[in-house]
Structures are given as structure tokens and as C-alpha cells.
Write a structure and sequence with these properties.
Rossmann fold; 3 domains; 22 helices; about 30% helix; about 20% strand; hydrolase; Ig-like_fold; Cellulose_Degrad_GH3; beta-glucosidase activity
Length: about 775
């Protein structure tokens, strides 16, 4: 049997297997039912469902989604879910049955969510992508992706639905937390690191998984910041901005892509042949698998309304280039009859099956379909991965304000009141797409501060004050009492993407946990949770205003999934830390920075506006968009690339050489960066390019390079960049990349609005 011979080329193996398959078996390879519904976990034993066994008998199952996923949607809890060892054993049971009870013994592709850690019980919960982007540390993120791949593959997961490469244009969008930020260049750098980290040197190794790029494309530019809303975008912007990170990741070898829910200029991405066939496969040469998002094909007939019924939707999707359907409902119901009736050419089905089989061969599933329970138990949630999560969280935290040097705090003196709804709410610092967690696994800010002052626990006071949402002020009295007794107040405010995990809530009057049958959800961010405002929810602002009246030093820590626009806090807080959702080790990482054990090095990858009415406020908008409103200018409160340190960095002697080049030439850009303070620190050196005059309008500045460097006190380092056609080009009038002769300005500095500048001339070739 050629397809079982690992010495044969993958193409030959796939073609041979395809030639042996019935139409039913082919269609089976294109569907992906929900994995958690294939088994029951009873008294520590795995029992496969009869419906799954029937699917195997009827032609097989190509893939399963979320076999190991645990959250309120799946209904899988800490009590009913699987441990790392049990998860690997469950996948083995599923694979063994599919292989041994099907005619051709084709293994199942197990797909899992892993945007900031494998979404399975026991897996390490890393910071969300918005925090990962704020690290500006590509190498560290790649290392994290290797850890995520190891944990996932050890349980049998072979493909992940990450990275998210959407460019955020309106942070009211609930999925902002899942993205790296607002800049396509930076997202592209993270995208390449993700593919390299997840897929490793070879996808058939025991510590690699296939990466799925999503959401292709424009998903972060939806109308009004509403999830899956229409996107109004010209082709030039689409090619130049939103498609750039995807192109970079495809060039890096990404194995899979997921189209977005949205439409662009009236065409749903699920059936956009210009993008899926023309750009992706035609221009870029992508030869991997394309899988829908959950329910996307159904939306064609009931949502976008471009299909008359389910069969029409399924046919449109597969003809446009969709290879597999997440959930499998529409393909499973309609493809067989569509082929038999002549509505769909079987060759189209064959092409999709060929791509699915090819991915399985590339992953080595035919040779090694089973997980290693011993390894899963050993590596998942390991101490090493927890330390990595802590380091990444620390590098992603952004110091926005530090008036009078109130930070870092002293470990040897003073009483600290830790107050706020996110001070001791573990789930609130994890973000969406997170599995259930035992309380002991997540360190909150309160836990982190107590850990630093373990020798003097009486120096730490705590009160929740209020909830994220709701109008109750019953916790104000305790919060004010704690603040009055303290020398310094740390207010932990923000948002929550925590779905209802049923763990109860906090008694605002005492700060104690209340375990009830009806947990109160504080969720105000996450998928499907879009907002009209960027203000703090509930009465959080009123709480901090009352505490401010006491006249104590006031430090704000934001834990949240989108920017917060609260001018009063910006003006009145002594210090502000933006921590985003920092993951399971977030409390430790925040405490490390509060007490100076870690010097903050995070920098914003998304502009924070003064007011929601400024939106869109991303830094690289067109120069023609105007300078101010009647009430205020159009500048954000905190610009792209911004972030403070406990030391100071100075830039000098920027040079660009040669000063004149041809369109296909390149220059060396060099700048001296000095740590002018008394502490070691890490700086993010950022390079921007301005095209002074061009045939097509351009942004004022565009990020085209960055370096993260560590400097000792007094140390100076020469930081160098190469700028060439890739950094100077734009999409011209013919929708092709062009480097236009003329004047450019090269900017290097600490953020987009604080740079040194030098001129560069590109002359005619």
C-alpha cells in the first residue's frame, strides 16, 4: 500500500490514498465535528459516543475540533474534564477506534485552540496576544510558541487555530485582546515567529503542530467595531496592511489558513475567490489547507444571505477554495447530494481532500497517530513553562505614568492597600479562550504583593471595592477603610473576559469568596462582547475617585483586553501600569515591576485615545485625515510604541548611509542608544519611515524595524538597521509593490512621536 509507505513522497502517497476512497470517505475527510462530543468521561474512564462510532462507519471523520477544549461553551469543567494524562489517553482511544474501524485506517486531525496556551485543563496559560505584542520580543514569543506546541502535541493535538493576525482598527471590538496590535509590520514579525515556533523545524516531530493563520482577512476593521461586521476597505489598503502579516506567515511556511466571518466590499471572506484562489494560492503559492471558522458556511445562507440554502452555501464555499468546515454541519449534510445531483464537480471535492490528506502526511499522523500520556503528564503545565509565562508577562506590562518616581515600591517600609475588582480575581486576568483553572494555579496581584511582603503580611490590606460591572457601592466602605490605613494604594481595575466558570463571586463587604450556584459574570470583553465605550465599566471610576480624596499615593494597575480611555485617572493617578490580561503568572509579574525586581520594558502596540470619539486613532492613518476636533486635538493619550522605564534612554548620532540609493538598493541606519539612568533597563528601539511625496497618499510614519536591547547604567550601544526595498515600497497605482524615487525620512526613537530623523534620497534607476 503506497500511502502507508513513509519512504514514498507525500504527493504520491496522497494521490494513491485518494484513488482508493469512496465519495463518502472523501466527504468525511472534509468535516470537523466538535471533539468534546465524541466521548464521555465517567468515573475516570473514556467511553466513545455511539454517534462518533456511526460517523466512522459512515465514511469517517477527517478532523475533530476541541477534543481537549474545556470552558462553559463545551460544558467541560475541572470536575468533568481530563487531566493532561487522561487527555492524551482519550485522544488515543479516539484515534485507535477511527484507524481500526475504518476501511482505510486514516488518522484523525485533532485541532485545538492555542492562542495563548493550549485551551485544555492543566495547560500553561500565557498572556493574551495583545500583551505578547507589547513585549516587542520576537525571540521570546517564538520560545513560547515552542512550549505551546510541545504541550499540545504531547496530548495528540496536531493543528492549532492560531496565530490571530488581525490588524485592530477599532478597539471597541471585543476580540482586540486576541490580536498583537494595530501595526501590520509588527504583527508580521510576530506571525513569522509564531509559525517558526509552532511548526518547528519539521511538523512531523513530537513537539510541533500546524499553525492556522486567522482571520483571513480584514476582521479587525469591522464597521463600528462590531464582531464580524462588514469591512469597508479599498484593495490597496487590504494588500498593504491587512494582508501583509498573512503573506509573511505564508512565506514562513504556515500550513493552514482560516477565512474570516466578515465581508469585504460585499463579498464574504468564506467565498472570496479573489482572495482564496487569486491572492492566497495564485500570487503567494500557498498549498496548505483552508478551514472555515465555526458556522461560517451557514452564515452565507442566514446572515450574509448570498446563498439560497445550505446546499448552495456549501457548494459556493468549496468551489471558492474551502477544504474543511469547522463543525462540519453544512458539508456533512449537503456535499454528497450536491455531487450526486451534478451541482458540484467531484474534482472540486478531490482537490480539497488532497489538501487535507497532504497535511496529515506532513504531520506524520500515519506513522505516529498516538499521543504519549507519560510525556503529557510531564510537560503540560511544567514549572519551566510557568517561569516562561512569568517572564513574558513582565515584558508585556507597559508603564504609562510614574509621576514623582512613586514606583518602584519599597519592600521594607509602608503599608500597601490592594484594592479593586481585579485585585484578586484570577479568571479576570486570563482572557478569553481559557480553560477552567484551580485557584492555586493563578497568582493574582494580591497574591503577588503578598508574596513580596511574605515576612510582613500585616503590611498588605485588601478590599475588592466593587465589581467590574454593576452599580453596587456596598464595597466602598471596606475599600476606603483599607486605603485610609495604608501608606500607598494599588488600585487594580479594568475589565474581564472571564466566561461563567461557576466559581461564585466576591463578597464586597468582606472581600471573601462567595460560592453560589449562580455565579455573576463580569465579562465586558472577549469574542462577541463589543462596546460603545472605552470607559471603565460599572462604578470603578467612582471608587477610585473616592479613594483619591484620601490623599494617598495612588497606583493604578489595569488588567483588561482593550485600551481604557479614562482622562480623570490619567490626570490624577500617580502611576499607571497597563498589564492587559497577563496570564496565570500575571500577579507575580506585576509585583515584580511594582517592587522594582523587573524594570518595565513593555511598549504599546495600540494607541490609547483620550476619548472614544477620536476613533479611529491608530498611528499610521493618512496625513489627510485632519488634525483636531472642536473639543480636542486628534492625538491619542498614549501613542503607539510608548512606554516608560525606571531608567532613562538617550538617542544620539543617527546616521543613514549612503544618503542616496537606487530603488533596489539598501542603506545602513545606525543610532547610539545610552542608558542615562542608574538602573539596568531594556529599551525598544523603533525605526519608522516617511515617504515625503508619493503618487498615492501614504501615512505620516510607518514602523519598519525594531530592536529590544538591554543596557547597563551608563552603557551605550550602536543599534543598526538595514533599510531597503521591502521597507520603502508601497502598493502603487497598478496594485503592485513599487519603490518610488524621491525623498524619504528615516526616524529612530523610543516611540512614534519621539524620534531622531535623517533624510534618504531614492534616485531614478
Amino acid at each position: 500500500m503506497i500511502y502507508k509507505d513513509k519512504t514514498k513522497p507525500i504527493r504520491e502517497r496522497a494521490e494513491h490514498l485518494l484513488s482508493l476512497m469512496t465519495l463518502e470517505e472523501k466527504v468525511g475527510q472534509l468535516i470537523q465535528p466538535f471533539g468534546w462530543q465524541t466521548y464521555e468521561h465517567i468515573d475516570g474512564k473514556i467511553e466513545l459516543s455511539e454517534s462518533f462510532k456511526q460517523q466512522v462507519a459512515d465514511g469517517g471523520v477527517g478532523s475533530l475540533y476541541g477534543v481537549l477544549r474545556a470552558d462553559p461553551w463545551t460544558g467541560v469543567t475541572l470536575e468533568s474534564g481530563l487531566s493532561p494524562r487522561q487527555g492524551a489517553e482519550a485522544v488515543n482511544e479516539i484515534q485507535r477506534y477511527a484507524i481500526e474501524h475504518s476501511r482505510l485506517g486514516i488518522p484523525i486531525l485533532i485541532g485545538e485552540e492555542c492562542s495563548h496556551g493550549h485551551m485544555a485543563i492543566g495547560a500553561t496559560v500565557f498572556p493574551v496576544p495583545l500583551s505578547l505584542g507589547s513585549t516587542w520580543n520576537v525571540d521570546l514569543y517564538r520560545e513560547m510558541c515552542r512550549a505551546v506546541a510541545l504541550e499540545t502535541r504531547s496530548q495528540g493535538g496536531a493543528v492549532t487555530y492560531s496565530p490571530v493576525l488581525d490588524v485592530v482598527r477599532d478597539p471597541r471590538w471585543g476580540r482586540t485582546e486576541e490580536c498583537f496590535g494595530e501595526d501590520a509590520y509588527l504583527i508580521g514579525e510576530m506571525a513569522v515567529a509564531s509559525v517558526e515556533g509552532l511548526q518547528g523545524s519539521s511538523m512531523d516531530s513530537e513537539d510541533s503542530v500546524a499553525a492556522t493563520l486567522k482571520h483571513f482577512v480584514g476582521y479587525g476593521s469591522s464597521e463600528g467595531g462590531r464582531n464580524a461586521g462588514p469591512v469597508h476597505m479599498g484593495r490597496r489598503e487590504l494588500l498593504e496592511v491587512d494582508l501583509l502579516p498573512f503573506r509573511k506567515a505564508v512565506e514562513a511556511g504556515a500550513a493552514s489558513i482560516m477565512p474570516a466571518y466578515n465581508e469585504i466590499d460585499g463579498v464574504p471572506c468564506t467565498t472570496n475567490t479573489d482572495l482564496l484562489d487569486g491572492v492566497l494560492r495564485g500570487e503567494w503559492g500557498f498549498d496548505g489547507m483552508v478551514i472555515t471558522d465555526c458556522g461560517a458556511i451557514d452564515m452565507l445562507a442566514s446572515g450574509h444571505d448570498v446563498a439560497g440554502d445550505g446546499r448552495d452555501a456549501a457548494v459556493q464555499a468549496i468551489e471558492a477554495g474551502i477544504d474543511m468546515e469547522m463543525s462540519g454541519e453544512m458539508f456533512g449534510k449537503h456535499l454528497l447530494e450536491a455531487v450526486r445531483s451534478g451541482q458540484l464537480d467531484q474534482a472540486v471535492v478531490d482537490q480539497a481532500v488532497r489538501r487535507v490528506l497532504t497535511l496529515k502526511f506532513r504531520l506524520g499522523l500515519f506513522e505516529s497517530p498516538y499521543a504519549d500520556p507519560d510525556k503529557a503528564e510531564r510537560v503540560i503545565g511544567s514549572a519551566e513553562h510557568a517561569q516562561l509565562a512569568r517572564k513574558i508577562a513582565g515584558e508585556g506590562i507597559v508603564l504609562l505614568k510614574n509621576e514623582g518616581g512613586v514606583l518602584p515600591l519599597s519592600k521594607s517600609a509602608g503599608t500597601i492597600a490592594v484594592i479593586g475588582p481585579n485585585a484578586d480575581a484570577g479568571y479576570n486576568q486570563l482572557g478569553d479562550y481559557t480553560s477552567p483553572q484551580p485557584k492555586s494555579k493563578v497568582t493574582t496581584v494580591l497574591g503577588g504583593v503578598r508574596g513580596k511582603l511574605a515576612a510582613a503580611p500585616e503590611r498588605v490590606l485588601y478590599a475588592p471595592g466593587c465589581r467590574i460591572k454593576g452599580e453596587s457601592k456596598e464595597g466602598f466602605e471596606l475599600a476606603l477603610s483599607c486605603a485610609e490605613q495604608a501608606d500607598t494604594v494599588v488600585m487594580v481595575l479594568g475589565g474581564s473576559s472571564a466566561r461563567d466558570f461557576g466559581e461564585g463571586s466576591i463578597d464586597l463587604k468582606t472581600g471573601a469568596s462567595k460560592v453560589t450556584g449562580n455565579a455573576e459574570s463580569d465579562m465586558d470583553c472577549g469574542e462577541g462582547i463589543d462596546r460603545l465605550s472605552l470607559k471603565l465599566s460599572g462604578v470603578q471610576l467612582e471608587l477610585i475617585q473616592e479613594i483619591h480624596k484620601l490623599g494617598k499615593p495612588l497606583i493604578v494597575v489595569y488588567i483588561n483586553g482593550r485600551p481604557i480611555a479614562e482622562p480623570w485617572i490619567d490626570e490624577h493617578a500617580d502611576a499607571i501600569l497597563e498589564a492587559w490580561y497577563p496570564g496565570q503568572e500575571g500577579g507575580h509579574a506585576i509585583a515584580d515591576i511594582l517592587f522594582g525586581d523587573v524594570n518595565p520594558s513593555g511598549r504599546l502596540t495600540i494607541s490609547i485615545p483620550k476619548h472614544v470619539g477620536q476613533l479611529p486613532v491608530y498611528y499610521n492613518g493618512k496625513r489627510s485625515r485632519g488634525k483636531r476636533y472642536l473639543e480636542a486635538d486628534s492625538q491619542p493619550r498614549y501613542p503607539f510604541g510608548y512606554g516608560l522605564s525606571y531608567t532613562q534612554f538617550k538617542y544620539a548620532n543617527l546616521s543613514v548611509g549612503p544618503e542616496t540609493i537606487l530603488p533596489n538598493g539598501s542603506v545602513n541606519v545606525a543610532v547610539e542608544v545610552t542608558n542615562a539612568g542608574e538602573r539596568s533597563g531594556t529599551e525598544v528601539v523603533q525605526l519608522y519611515v516617511t515617504d515625503v511625496a508619493s503618487v498615492v497618499t501614504r501615512p505620516a510614519k510607518e514602523l519598519k524595524g525594531f530592536r529590544k536591547i538591554e543596557l547597563a547604567p551608563g552603557e551605550t550601544r550602536l543599534v543598526e538597521f538595514t533599510v531597503g526595498a521591502e521597507e520603502l515600497q508601497y502598493i502603487g497605482q497598478d496594485y503592485k509593490p513599487v519603490v518610488e524615487p524621491g525623498e524619504f525620512v528615516i526616524h529612530v526613537g523610543s516611540h512614534v512621536n519621539e524620534t531622531l530623523s535623517a533624510k534618504l534620497i531614492v534616485r531614478e534607476g
